[in-house]
Design goal:
mainly beta, 127 residues, 5peptide_repeat, Pectate Lyase C-like, 3-stranded parallel sheet, Pentapeptide repeat-containing protein
Length: 127
């Protein structure tokens, strides 16, 4: 797996929980795996690939997965508040905690089923 970029990256693992601060990950790709409660607040994940990863209850506060591919990823219970999802591909990911009013979803791609969940979060009725 490619290593994170050198731009002030700190990844700490304590009691099985990874935490990072002000990290910018380049050429970051994860296929599968179990990353429960991972802490990536403020992480720069532009262009990252997260495919089929289990990231339940992950802290993605203010993360920047712009133009990232986050497909088939379990983000149930995750905290994506203030995240920039601009141009991200989120198809097939479990997004129950995604509040479209607290993230920047501009240009993000979601599937039909996900769009109904997001519409429901906005208080819309999908008929």
């Amino acid at each position: 797996m490619p290593s994170p970029s050198a731009s002030s990256t700190r990844l700490r693992v304590r009691h099985g929980i990874a935490k990072t601060s002000a990290a910018a990950f380049t050429l970051f790709q994860v296929n599968g795996g179990d990353w429960p409660s991972v802490g990536l607040p403020g992480a720069g994940l532009r262009g990252a690939v997260l495919d089929g990863v289990r990231m339940r209850e992950a802290d993605l506060t203010a993360a920047r997965p712009e133009k990232a591919s986050v497909t088939g990823t379990d983000l149930s219970g995750a905290m994506p508040h203030s995240s920039r999802l601009t141009g991200a591909d989120l198809r097939g990911s479990d997004l129950p905690a995604l509040d479209p009013l607290t993230v920047e979803p501009s240009g993000a791609t979601v599937g039909l089923e996900q769009s109904a969940v997001i519409a429901g979060a906005l208080g819309l009725v999908v008929a």
